[in-house]
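P.,

For your records, the input lines for the assembly:
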Amino acid sequence: MTIHQKAVLAGAGAMSRKWLEAIKTIGGVDIVGIVDINPANAEKRAEEQGIAPEIGTDLKAMLSRLTPDIVLDVAIPAARHEIVSTALSAGAHVLSEKPMAETMEQARDLVARARAAGRLHVVVQNRRYLAQLRRIRRLVASGAIGELTAIHCDFFLDPHFGGFREQMAHVLLLDMAIHTFDAARFVADDAAASVYAEEWNPAGSWYREGSSALASFRFAGGAVFTYRGSWCAPGLRTSWESAWRIVGTTGSVVWDGADDIRAERSVPGGGQLLPAIEPVAIPALDPADRIGGHLGVITDFIAATRGGPLPETVGHENIKSLAMVLGAIDSVGQGGRVEIVI
Ligand SMILES: NC(=O)c1ccc[n+]([C@@H]2O[C@H](COP(=O)([O-])OP(=O)(O)OC[C@H]3O[C@@H](n4cnc5c(N)ncnc54)[C@H](O)[C@@H]3O)[C@@H](O)[C@H]2O)c1
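Structure tokens returned:
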């Protein structure tokens, strides 16, 4: 590996380990600086990874000194717009964690800045890089269950993170549901047109607010997508990917969010109360399918900085998933169904 790109990482918390390990696996990228408002986090992460970058607290100053090709933003959501816009202004390609922004105005601004700067702005929406999701999308797209009419997802877990999540507003919708919303948009191959949502914080919650939510979307093509979720639901946990039921005009798919995908369809010409059904084979992964979670997204981003294809989670695409989340939050505030505007 002879390519030597320089990268600065912003935010050296829990998730930064996975990013730095991915960068090491890909090769050809030197981490020349780490910025964190808590420099001890940066020092700890650098030491653990066996690297010796410059450590600092001032991103702008570090970027003008080190002129990196790439900025890797793994800081908290509240710092995102400032970090990504500073990095784009400094002429770097930027990969940021989700969510890509806290408001649509910020997200649109980052898309416009990336375009004006002629730089890549890509978001880590890692859960669409799951093999099972790729296979489900192939099945739906093949027409094996007819026309898609509905996607239903249930998400029930009880994590005790500590840190920023227990204080942030709309924590489930903004920090977690975006993965399932993005995955549903991917499976439907459509954009959401409207949403009705409710949010609550159940008795006994260890979150300040918004640990539970439901949302009902309409996709532009007419399919319904419903989400019921909680980060404050002890017992009988679902997978982190949600438990799925996908309904088409002639069949259905269920996915437990882990390895179990099953599909069935009705046998034509039945006539009984409940027509006969038959199993539907789940397509194999295609070699062209992008997989690998964080490593997959980071690999595609680095390849794009070297002239490869535009990653599917580029800002001007990922804003459609953020719009679902922020539309749901608007609906909570307004108490009714809202249109989703990109
Ligand atoms: N894609 C996923 O599956 C996934 C999973 C977990 C977390 N995340 C995302 O990763 C991001 C970080 O999460 P985490 O779990 O590592 O959080 P964390 O709290 O462990 O770490 C955040 C780090 O950012 C630093 N920081 C805060 N403000 C900063 C600023 N202005 N400049 C530089 N550094 C700053 C903090 O000091 C801390 O070290 C969040 O956006 C989160 O949503 C994504």
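Two observations worth noting. The chain has two domains: 5-119, 130-288+323-339. Residues 10-16, 35-38, 41, 74-77, 79, 97-98, 124, 126, 163-164, 175 surround nicotinamide-adenine-dinucleotide (CB under 6 Å).

Regards
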